[in-house]
Specification:
With about 150 residues, the chain is mainly alpha-helical. It has helices spanning about 10-15, 25-35, 60-75, 100-120, 120-140, 145-150; strands spanning about 40-45, 50-55, 90, 95. A hairpin with a 5-residue loop joins strand 1 and strand 2 (about 50-55).
Length: about 150
Amino acid sequence: MGQAPPILTGTDVLDLLSGYENEFGNVKKKVKRIWESGRSSSIKSSDGKYHEFKAAIFDMTKQEKEIFCPLLEKAKLPYGYAANISRYVHTKERIISGYKSHDAHFVLHYLLQFAVKKTLKPEVAEPLIRLGAFLRGLWGKVIDLRDLKRI
């Protein structure tokens, strides 16, 4: 495993981006040339050195998305309980888009726990599972004090 990238201060970042001015839309083209494609990106500093930025721990790989999307797409749900969530899952493109807030609410409460447990790293999946359990307990119709202490 490689070394962690150096920690940059605000001044360091400004020095790295010096010479890039906001020209109403052209800035994206200039900055885009700096970044490499792939799971980690590099930026060239003014002294000619490259600084590498690794992908975030919660960033899903292509293989993880290929597991995650069909899990959500093939979930059998009763009518009225975000039953149309499969319409918003695009397995070929590996994206989920266009869903409503109710669908996101339902996914966070119930479906996300199963999907992330199979696809994400434990240090990412565990907090998401606990968050879903907390919200389910908090927004339940009946709240038991023992359950409240547990969550």
